[in-house]
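Dear support,

We are seeing what looks like truncated structure output for some complexes. This example has three components. We would appreciate it if you could run it in full and send us the complete token output so we can diff it against ours.
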Amino acid sequence: MPELPDVVGMKRYLDSTSLHQKITHTQIRDDRIVKGCSVQMLYRRLHGAKMTGTVQHGKFLFADLSADGWLVLHFGMTGSLAYYSRDEKPPEYTRMLIDFAGGAHLAYLSKRMLGRLSVADDPQKYLDDNDVGPDALSDEVTADRFIEAMSERRGALKPALMDQSLFSGLGNIYSDEVLFQAGLHPRLEAADLDTSQLRKLYKAMRTVLKAAAEEGGDISGFGQWLVNHRGKGKTCPRCGTEVKSISIAGRRGWFCPECQRKS
DNA sequence: TTCCATGTTCCGCA
DNA sequence: TTGCGGAACATGGA
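Here is the complete output from our reference environment:
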């Protein structure tokens, strides 16, 4: 689930449930999920703190702990949050459990343990240290900047879109959708595109991410989107041609061979 | 049982 | 130097 739009949804969820409540207890239920700092450090920063706000950047979510720095959340392929009040049992796959003074809880879930929890003194510094580029929906990523970066890049479009050091937020699913809406084949190279095609790619990226982010990542209602028609035997929502898949940069990408020509 | 999966990272190779 | 394929990580579900 968690690409940029999903993390926007996660931010909304955290903001609407968990802010300004004193953290009375934190439990890491599997140490392996904490990366880049010690479990003790994470406990120390969280205990007694309040989350006063959040910042979403690409696939990252940062929770402001005020004087205690920031809690860094990354969701990997199967991460999510669950807030619940009272004395319910924590959901399955809870890797971190935060208890609030009022008795409510915030659980960080990760089925496959591919997510990451950490602490940071400053989000931007953390992003820089981890070689994460600007958020793909931020004002920083203008058409001109996008076109410039892409035309300097060699190799296929799809891995370029998924490269978090260029622009952060797109993963396998959304890169498929962006290429579909731009009418471009995933194996095309940026260097083969003219400016108007790159502009179209940029517009598709922004449109797709914006629409999906508004839904908090729940794009199941977008029947015309390719990603709701990924899979063997499925057909293109635009022209009815059977969709195809290719392996590219270690991932399986889906596309319409009619709408997304190589030339 | 085998393969695949919305993520990242590391290695070897071209 | 850059980008890619493949493996690794870890685990569940089809």
